[in-house]
Each structure stands twice: as structure tokens, then as C-alpha cells.
Design a protein that fits this description.
412 residues, 21% strand, alpha/beta
């Protein structure tokens, strides 16, 4: 289903602009207990979670972040870190003890009960760990259920639910009951239900943790594919760091109610904020998180396609290199030239480089995971070329760089 065919009947508050974040969390605290405000006061003074136990349980402490529209923002932490409590405040199920949570430009703690319910129906969908399907309803009716709650007519909601099931590959199972589906298929129904609601924000609470590893990875990949096509804003809760690294545009690491670091996967791997995060990431396979762009270096010699053989000879001689990468005027990679070939071209009186360029050059993109770089590097006689999304030469990866990365992984 094309993105443009998704219904867009929901009103967005006037304060929301395309540049505004989809979700904003500002100095949020959540304390359960007898004296929550006093607990917040002490926490603001620098007291620890344990120091306020006599006043209540501090589930979330001074959380501040924004989630951009179209971003997958992963909140990761162990059991008891506060991540699920944080998610419930994003959905308006719980109000912060202090601070504010804004979704689609509305402060959830400031709106009335009816407005909050309307806002949740219109702007936020949930995908749960244990599917939360209605067992007596068909797959199609389960996917259509949030539209029924919104008051959408039967024909339209069935059409939209069918489109959502098609997106997740379950259109042929529309008339089945949940009990007839595998765990992975049931989770797809939950995802289809969230997509059918056509909300701005998807909240996913440990959505794939009940699945076996192979199906879990398949669901992760499907989520990334859907995100690329639909551009939803997703807040994804997980205790699995590898899942966080695979899915997240950015990751927030929580410990004891506090967010201890926010960053992209590569940032968290290469520059952990403290010893806790460093221990957490120690077991991550860096070759599946780091990308070609993160390890590439500047190429030794690059010559312009229109420069001619003499310019190429001079550049190769200066760099003491045997080959050079050739780029056009927009810096798109056009191939490589060998020193022997351009010297021969000069001797023959050639004035153009075209005849000496070998266009069959192995390359990867800047976003290629390092684990997928080893095979093409083995077939490249030169340092492996790295290009951007438009085919422009961004850098190269010498074999010694890959050997160092592999050795580091083996040592761990």
C-alpha cells in the first residue's frame, strides 16, 4: 500500500509544525508512594533512589529527551530501570509526578480526561509484548478494533484493516482466529492493528521479546522495512541491547530510573558515558553495529575523470601509489586507473583518461554493517571503496582496518 493511500483524517494541534518533535519529555519524575512530591524535592537535591525509599518508589528520575518525527527511539534497560513506567507516561496512562510529557504538541498532564482519551485514540498506538488480541475475533476484526473504538464505519475500517494486514503479509489470514496463528503471526496482527489506527506515534513495549530468536529478528527487519516506507514515529522499549542497536536511530540507556546516556548506536559503542554502559556494550558484536562509514579513511589518490593521463601520473607519483580512484565532477565513483596504464597512455599521446579507467570497482555504502564488508573487501585488489547514497566516493577501507576490527572482536 502506498504511503499516500493511508487515511489522514486526524487533526494535529496547530502548535505542531513539521520541525517540532513528535514527543517531548521535560524533566519528568514518577514516584509511587506516600509522599511523592517530597521524594521529587530530595531527588532534585541530588539524593539517590535509595535515599527516598521511605517516601516512595522513584520509578523515573529527571528524564528529558525529544523524539523527532519519523525516528525510532529505543529506550533500553534492565528490569526495574523505569523504561515501562516511562512508556506509560508517554501514553497518558500515568501522569508524571513532576515535569511534562508532550505528544503531538499536547501536554498529556494538562488535558482533560475526554481530551486525553481522544488524543490517545488519534495520535498514539500501542504494540504489546503478549499481543493483546481478542481471541473470539478474526484477524481482520482484531486489526480493525481501534478503528471501531474511533467510531469509523464498518466498511472503511475493514478496508483500512485489510490494507494494514497486507503491509505485514497477513492478508491471506484475515478470516482466521488468533489461536490458529503462530506467535510471530500474532505479533504481526498487533502491528497491523497499530498501523490501521494510522496514529502519529507507535509505542512498542518489549514487542518482540516473547518470540523465538529467528522470528524475533524477522520481526525487527519487518519493522525497519515498514518504517522506511511509512515514516512513523516509534518509541521502542527493550531490555536487549542487540535489539536496541539493530532498531534504534537513537538509544536511551536507563538505569535505576535515570537515563544515563542517549546517542546513536555507534556513539554508545565507541564512547560509553560511564562504566555501567561500557559493561553493557562489552558483549555487543561491533561488526554488526559499526558501519563502513565509521571506519573508512581518506583515499590515498583520487583523480578527476576529466583531468587526463598526465594529471593522473603526477598524482600517483606524488603519493607513491600504484592505482587511483576516478571520480566525475560530482564526485561519483567512476572506477580505478592503474599506474602502468596511465603511463602507457601518456606515452601514446592520449589526452583523456576514459580509455584507461576500469569501471568494475568493488564498493559498499557508508551504512553497510562492518560484518558485511569482509566479503567484498576480499575481492577488491585495492582498499575497498565506500560511497554515499548517491554513489559519491566518501572514503576507503584498507584491509588492515578490517583485520584490526576482526582482531578486536576475537580478543573480546
Amino acid at each position: 500500500m502506498p504511503v499516500s493511500s493511508l487515511p489522514a483524517t486526524l487533526d494535529v494541534p496547530a502548535a505542531v509544525t513539521p520541525a517540532a518533535p513528535a514527543v517531548r519529555v521535560d524533566h519528568v519524575y514518577k514516584v509511587f508512594g506516600r509522599r511523592p512530591q517530597e521524594a521529587v524535592r530530595r531527588l532534585r537535591e541530588g539524593r539517590s533512589r535509595q535515599d527516598v525509599r521511605d517516601l516512595g518508589t522513584a520509578a523515573v528520575i529527571d528524564a528529558t529527551f525529544e523524539v523527532a518525527r519519523g525516528e525510532i527511539f529505543v529506550v533500553m534497560g534492565l528490569s526495574g530501570s523505569g523504561k515501562s513506567t516511562l512508556l506509560r507516561m508517554l501514553n497518558g496512562l500515568w501522569k508524571p509526578t513532576a515535569g511534562s510529557v508532550e505528544v503531538a504538541g499536547s501536554d498529556l498532564s494538562a488535558v482533560s480526561g475526554p481530551d486525553l482519551r481522544r488524543l490517545r485514540r488519534s495520535h498514539v498506538s500501542m504494540v504489546f509484548q503478549h499481543f493483546a488480541l481478542l481471541p473470539h475475533r478474526t484477524v481482520l476484526d482484531n486489526a480493525a478494533y481501534p478503528l471501531e473504538i474511533q467510531g469509523v464505519g464498518r466498511r472503511e475500517r475493514r478496508e483500512r484493516a485489510t490494507e494494514a494486514l497486507t503491509l505485514v503479509g497477513l492478508e491471506a489470514w484475515a478470516d482466521r482466529l488468533p489461536v490458529q496463528l503462530s506467535g510471530g503471526m500474532r505479533q504481526r496482527v498487533g502491528l497491523a492493528r497499530a498501523l490501521a489506527a494510522n496514529t502519529d506515534v507507535l509505542l512498542m513495549d518489549e514487542a518482540f521479546s516473547a518470540l523465538d530468536p529467528l522470528i524475533r529478528r524477522e520481526m525487527q527487519d519487518q519493522l525497519l522495512d515498514l518504517q522506511q516506507r511509512l515514516g512513523k514515529t516509534i518509541v521502542f522499549i527493550t531490555h536487549d541491547l542487540n535489539e536496541a542497536m539493530h532498531l534504534g536511530d537513537r538509544i536511551a540507556v536507563m538505569r535505576d530510573g535515570r537515563i544515563v546516556q542517549i546517542g546513536m548506536a555507534e556513539q554508545i559503542l565507541s564512547d560509553p558515558a560511564n562504566d555501567y554502559v561500557a559493561r553493557f556494550v562489552a558483549e555487543v558484536d561491533r561488526t554488526r553495529v559499526l558501519t563502513a562509514g565509521s571506519v573508512m579513511v581518506r583515499p590515498a589518490v583520487v583523480v578527476p575523470l576529466g583531468g587526463g593521463p598526465r594529471q593522473a601520473v603526477l598524482a600517483l607519483r606524488e603519493a607513491q601509489a600504484s592505482a587511483a580512484y576516478v571520480v566525475d565532477r560530482t564526485r561519483r565513483l567512476r572506477g580505478v586507473v592503474q599506474a602502468d596504464d596511465v603511463v602507457e597512455a601518456v606515452r601514446a599521446g592520449a589526452t583523456e583518461l576514459d580509455g584507461t579507467v576500469d569501471p568494475d570497482v568493488v564498493s559498499v555504502t557508508t551504512t553497510t554493517p562492518l560484518a558485511e564488508v569482509f566479503a567484498p573487501a576480499a575481492h577488491s585488489p585495492l582498499p575497498l571503496a565506500v560511497v554515499d547514497d548517491e554513489g559519491r566516493l566518501a572514503g576507503v577501507i584498507p584491509r588492515v582496518t578490517l583485520l584490526e576490527a576482526l582482531a578486536a572482536e576475537v580478543r573480546r
